[in-house]
Amino acid sequence: MNRLPIGNPRARGTGESRAGGGRVDARGDEGEIGVAHGHGHGHGHGHGHGQGQGHGQGHGQGHGHGEDRQEDREGGSRVVVSASWGVVFGVIVLVVSGVGCDFAEVGDGTRRLRMGHVYEVKSPTHAFGTANLDERLEEAGVGLEVAVFPAAQLGSESELLEQLVAGEIDLAIAGPSFLAMWHRPLGVFDAAYAFEDLEQMQRVADGPLMAPHWAALRERFGVRVLATWAYGSRHITGNRPVRHPDDLRGFRLRMPAATVWQASGRALGASPMPIAFSEVYMALQQGIADGQENPVPVIQAMGFHEVQQYVSLTGHIQSSIQILINERVWQSLTDRQREALGDAVVTLGQEVLEGTRRQEAELLARWRSEGPVEVIDDVDVGAFEARARATFADGYPFSELYEKVTEEAKSEEASSEETSPASRGRTDG
């Protein structure tokens, strides 16, 4: 029996509300759970984009992973609830092995699964990933279908996790900060400069170092991680260039409210501010915040480049999301179905990474040639890394894991330098 943090049942819907004339916004980024307007349960798409986040004007792509904060607006009133690592709006006790999971089959005996996530249909996560999942399974010919419900149609990220454990849905997507509420070491994925790049992040996620941590989710909550997908490299925008930690002294940097995110902001040298994602554009426009940080496609989708003069390529967090399946559902599949589903998820994850990289490169090239923002390339990443690694070396639930991950990155870098043509030339010469 395990205690499972859950979301606010009164904010079940996110997106355009069909029950009260109001609107419920999908989380913008790292776990911003939602902003609800009106009454009833909403379904549809909300603010979020890009790699999962949306524009602050009622469109865009919804996503986020791990900001433990919810804003519930009903009839004009507003209630803000902040959660710590272990609890999100209450606790429910579930016997994981004995709930839900009424397996669905269509007329010809084909097994049909339901998947929910908070990303809008134009986000890389959906456009390059989950939108193609059912087609890949059909090509495999193993009698397995997946109906995907994007854009928070089935609820916020915390609600989707609740439904996944209860067996109400079969697959879901969540980010590390949400999963860290169940297993705290997973917060390492959202700690500044834990990883060199998205590729190293994915290697670590898929490697032996993380295997026991994914196993902990499986054993305690009945949730299996099928794969880790890239969300994007996060960079800082502002009205002054940021090249060194000293440039962030007194800099009010909007970051998600989760503990690890706020710690990362301080580790960079900034004064982090936990502003709701849907309010970031206005906060930047009005000077309430000096800057924010997000992947490049999100900056574009949210229009942050319209109210900021510089994009400084700090690459301080290599953001990720995890593809999850209910363990009882996984065990109920045939060997061929499990193999096909696992292969499809891993392959699509690579396509999401490539699509994300493509979008980032295209946008940076456009900004460099046309503006309206100036791209700052000469960032002293080493200085930022040193501060972050000193911050997270101890005192956090994931500190031991952080040290192992960063040491692994150093070893890979040293190995790469030793085997490079230039290094061989110096050795041979």
Layout of helices and strands:
Blueprint: E1 2-5, E2 15-16, E3 23-26, E4 32-36, E5 54-55, E6 59-60, E7 69-74, E8 77-82, E9 91-94, E10 104-105, E11 111-116, H1 124-129, H2 133-140, E12 144-149, H3 157-166, E13 171-174, H4 176-179, H5 198-206, H6 211-221, E14 223-238, E15 252-254, H7 259-268, E16 271-273, H8 280-285, E17 291-295, H9 296-302, E18 310-326, H10 327-332, H11 335-370, E19 374-376, H12 381-392, H13 399-419, H14 421-428
Parallel strand pairs: 4-7, 11-12, 11-13, 15-16, 15-17, 18-19
Antiparallel strand pairs: 1-9, 2-3, 3-4, 5-6, 7-8, 10-11, 13-18, 14-17, 14-18
Question: What does this 3D model show about the protein?
Answer:
The protein is an alpha/beta fold and 429 residues long. Helices cover 36% and strands 23% of the residues. The strands form 4 sheets. Strands 10, 11, 12, 13, 14, 15, 16, 17, 18 and 19 form a 10-stranded mixed beta sheet that branches. It has a 5-stranded mixed beta sheet with strand order 2-3-4-7-8, with no helix packed on it. Helix 7 crosses helix 12. The protein starts with a strand and ends with a helix.
Secondary structure category: alpha/beta
The end-to-end distance, rounded to whole angstroms, is 64 Å
**Mean pLDDT, nearest integer?**
79
Q: Strand share of the residues? A: 15-25%
- Summarize the amount of helix as a percent range: 25-40%
Output the number of helix runs. 14
Gyration radius over CA: 21 Å
Summarize the structure.
36% of the residues lie in helices and 23% in strands. By secondary structure, the protein is an alpha/beta fold.
